[in-house]
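Handout, section B. The chain below has 381 residues.
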Amino acid sequence: MHPKQRHFHLWMPNMLGFKGGVQVYSAFFLRAIQSLCPQGCFDVFLKHDSQTSPQIEYLPDTRFHFAGRFPDSVRTLAFVAQLVGQGIWQCPDLIITTHLNFTPAAYQLKRLRGISYWTIAHGVEAWNVTRPGLQTALHHADLILAVSHYTRDRLLKEQNLDPSRVLLLPNTFDASRFQIGRKPDRLLQQYQLKPEQPVILTVNRLSSTESYKGYDKVLAALPKIRQLIPDVHYIIVGKGDDRPRIEQLIAQLQLQNCVTLAGFVPDNELGDYYNLCDVFAMPSKCEGFGIVYLEALACGKPALGGNQDGAIDALLGGELGALVNPDDEAEIAQTIIQILQGDYPHPIIYQPEALRQRVVDTYGFEQFQRTLANHLRKTTT
């Protein structure tokens, strides 16, 4: 059957409300596959959403199935019942789940009805998998799409999978929402900053389960940075249960006057924060990819990431930014100082237009769609 005429089941955690990496990826994936298969038939199953939204692009005859209308206590059971029941009844040509945890249900449908299935591997959910049912489902998947080489390499090593069935489909972003601009007067006034004042930025949830993102390491590096750049200011955008620990660390290091915890910032204001900064810093060590790097680069900003995780992909192995040891506070401090003083040896980070064009060419939606099209072609030839 021609891919444009196939019947797809797409299984997703959610696409609305909370906008984490999996949710953003899921929305882009739906848009891309429907653009590639406009005559296809699509049933989309959403575990946590209860209705759709005009913010999400989809074909008008797309059928949505919402499990978010069920109470939390029975939602997982109701969602699985939807997936298996509709799968047996409709017998689609291909199931694609944008979260690994749903693959055991897809495996059962493959056993019962011979339905092929793909899944997406993002980050921590794909590492150190020990559940036998999930391991079996991964081994029987027709295709696993990993968002980065780091995620792919870990998955292959830990699960001993067939490398020919684990391919790359890196994250993408909305380039139209993130543009090069001057420092917004509104934010300069809000945070009492001078236009020439160096600003470091991190955008991330302040979650105790995601402290590996490295914002505490940037805080620890700040005293050394301030020795050479006394007026530097660090802004952390995001909210979460790790905030009390971060506030305590700020007090211990006596950084109250040079650190701002901005809290939650709406998506439509994030571009202003990227344009406010002089360097985006997230020296993580367990990041599956990191869409925020792409957003910062699209605003023409130098970016710093860790050299042990998916940030290597996002920053193209150091071609688009600085990669540092995420556990080395001295190296983090020294590299941020270099960047802010204009001494970093890779000149593209000081060329906003070139930086933006490179990240759009590499990770823009058009490239995402082309890569997905190649994967679809390979499965139908």
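Note. Residues 176-361 form a domain with the Rossmann fold fold (CATH 3.40.50.2000). Compare this with the example in section A.
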